[in-house]
Amino acid sequence: MAQYRTPLQPFLAPVGAVLFGASQEPGSLGHGLLLNLRSGALARRLHIVSERHSEIDGIACHRSLSQIQAPLSLALIATPAPTVPEIVDHCGRRGIHAAVVFSGGLRPTTAAGARLRELAARHNVRLFGPQALGYIVPHAGLNLTPVTQAVPAGNLALVSQSAAVCANILDWSHNDEFGFSAIFAPGESDDLELPAILDYLAGDPHTESILLYLEGLRDARGFLTSVRAAASIKPVIAVKAGKSATSARIAEAHSGVRVDRDDAFDAALRRAGVLRVRALGDMFSAARALTTPRKPRSNRLAIVSNGGGPAVMALDQAEQLAITLAQLAPPTEDRLRQLVPGSWSAGNPVDVLFDTGPKRFVEAITTCLDDPGVDAVLAILTPNVYVDPLAVARATIGAVEQAVKPVFTCWLGEVHARSSRAAFARARFPTFRTPENAVSAFAFMVNWVRNQAMLLEMPPALSSYVAPDVAAARAIIDGALAERRLALTLPEAKGVLAAFHIPVSQTVLATSPTAAVHIADRLGYPLAMKPALAAGTPKAAGSVRLQLRSAPEVALAFRELTAAGHTPDGVLIEPQVSKPEGRWLAIGIRQDRLFGPVISLSESGIAPVIYDARAVALPPLNTRLIDALLDTPYVARLLGAVPGKPAVAAEPLRRILLRTSEMASELPWLHSLEISSLIADSAGAVAVDVAIAVQPLPEERERYGHMAICPYPAQLESEATLKDGSRCTLRPIRPEDTAALQDFVRHLSAHSKRLRFFSALSELPMHQLARYAHIDYGRDMVIVATGERDGNAVVLGEARYSILPDGKSGEFAVVIADEMVGKGLGARLLNRLVDAAREHGLSLLRGEVLASNEPTLRLLEALGFTVNLTDDHTLVEVSQRLG
Fold it and tell me: Which one of 237, 636, 790, 811 has the minimum C-beta count within 10 Å?
């Protein structure tokens, strides 16, 4: 199988371009496009089609596409919406398969928009747009936008869902500190959009960081797959607008994208390893911080300053952002006292005094860096008559350029500090104008490091605990749906929780005072009683009786509820859970329009609704992801020790959240689940009240198609014994296999590399490696064979398929280590890959093999694959139907 080729290639390297809608009128879309095209790399390959003009600005115009004899591969369309479908039709007939559509008014719901997409699909024309601002690639001399100001070349890529925001950023002055490797504004494109752009930027050697302005998504799962792969290679920093319900509604109307709750979007970005910031300016601060290859292990910051005021300002910002002021070790404090004997500061922050020189300043920084309790240092310099800012900057760079911990710099002032900041930028030291911005940038880096750790987590749907009784839970749900009910009764809902081994209080139905007394005597006192309402019916005020301690009280409570008209279907009786030191928590599952099931943890009651105080995560979860959820500052305070109450036990809560993740994964019929009363203390936790709403689903569906993140398919793992008696593990690839997979490719012979990749590459490019290891298991599959060598896990072979656009067939490839040839590993890998494809519902696997690769062709034929000739005599096509 050949290497990945970006679908953007015809847009980035066209053999010739034709512009429809060029204009002589200054300030118009057609005129701005023409100015940029004339001065760019496409100037000599540009042609104009216009029925109104014979020439524009000295460039001859053609009345129709048929008059152009030169080769063309890209169309640029800036004409009124009704004319665009016909133009795309003509382009498709001419063999032009790439078009940038700048015109608006072409959403799929319009007649012209529907016709445009129909014709583009018929002729295999890929669309960038409609309503596109276009794209700029400064290194290639391409500016296919109407924005006419010069764009400096650099290493930042910008992708914006808003043309206005993109134009605003391009109009900023960055004092030559930033330049762009690429800028994409696809507008309302639903063909070539975020996934394709991110895949390209992940492999672009000119791009070091990717900046995103987002309002919503069209393909959440495709976006997460692509952004995870990109974020595993280079920093991805995002601003997501539309946080409130009102602004989200406007964003959806504005961009034509799908929008839902902001907290779910935030959780998705964290899980994908993306750093989310709140404002456009923060994107560049974060990019500045992440230019350094040095990253902190945690959030403990030391501050070195030649003035107390700026240090205090930095401390205020650190406290607001939950950045920990590092506690310096006694040896560090002793060394600092010797270094600055007259300082008021005995620890952190370190005030090296107003008259410090380069030597004292730098020694204070290196002393803090040597402290094991310090993760990063912020160096603040205030200009004055005693110091030479540039000399101190150069000394700092020289002293700490080999440090493994990051050093942030803040040289205050402008005139005297400008050259110092430029020196720091050239040396890739994050540098800022104010202490607050410097601390914020450190917080960005800390969050990015945490998100990168989450990026590596790909849990299975089911935990390693005792398997849940999915069939029992499914039977309860099916029973309700068979009765055309979309809500479960309380006993049914608790039955679902119990099937997943979540502790619940027992609830029993009683239909008479006598039955209620018998049940109460069996359950034990004290008890709670509530009406047995139809599923989904809210409880009336005063309809719950608590602390019932005797049979007479139970009988009386039943009669009172009956007299009040609350018990047409009887009452529910359950033990009164006594946890005097407990916290009342709520755990829920809700369906997000973009990301499917979302899990939330909060305090029980109305407070989370009023203050929007809840922690959320996307399933599937594992213990590391749950620990990150429990470490959320709000949740940590909620569960921590308070006067008179010890901290909530983490392990029982962790197990319940894992089980909740299992339900979200295995029960797509759950529309919502709300454990509104989960009482947790230092000994355990029990669910007292729960409500579940369900939804019918079609029988034909992908098992985990309802989830934005497909769980790791642990069911495909197995041990294999090869012909020589050696053993290996066959399993789906995981993100942590990246290094081992690269090492495997490096050690393949040149012959094996040519057979697998159709080239003799020395190693996989980083973006292709990321596409292999960070996959969506619902769209791609890579099965690796792993063994052990010198105590380290190694890859012995790999087989993969990618699902093709029809959703029913896949393209596959396989390769094994040279030393494994003849041991039966290739057959084992292919059989497991076919099993995975069949389990996923694919009907066909096909691939291309070099005609000269006779051993592989013999193996494939032995395994039931059919070999067919192709137009290329060096290749044959192999395929197997999986019915």
Answer: 790
The C-alpha atoms of residue 112 and residue 713 are separated, in whole angstroms, by 43
By the 8 A CB rule, do 599 and 580 touch? no
Q: For residue range 719-775, list pLDDT tens digits in order.
A: 999 999 999 999 999 998 999 999 999 999 888 887 777 676 778 888 788 878 888
As a whole number, the mean pLDDT across the chain is 92
Q: Which amino acid is at 534?
A: A
Place of tokens 């928009």: 113
Q: For residue 410, give both structure tokens.
A: 């803040």
| pTM (2 d.p.) | 0.89
CA-based nearest residue to 36, from 142, 133, 138: 142
Residue with tokens 């730098």: 362
Q: Which two tokens stand for residue 37?
A: 């095209």
Q: Give the DSSP H or E segment for 446.
A: helix 435-455
Contacts of 403 by beta carbon, 8 Å cutoff, 6+ apart? 294, 366, 369
Cβ 8 vs Cβ 127: under 8 Å: no
**CA distance linking residue 430 with residue 610, whole number of Å:** 39
- The 3 state secondary structure assigned to 14-64 is CCCEEEECCCCCCCCHHHHHHHHHHCCCCHHHEEEECCCCCEECCEEEECC
In whole angstroms, what is the distance from residue 104 CA to residue 110 CA?
11
The alpha carbon of residue 786 and the mean position of all alpha carbons in its chain are separated, in whole angstroms, by 28
Burial class, 437, CB count within 10 angstroms (exposed 0-12 / middle 13-18 / buried 19+): buried
Q: How far apart are CA 773 and CA 476, in angstroms?
A: 38
pLDDT on residue 870 = 86
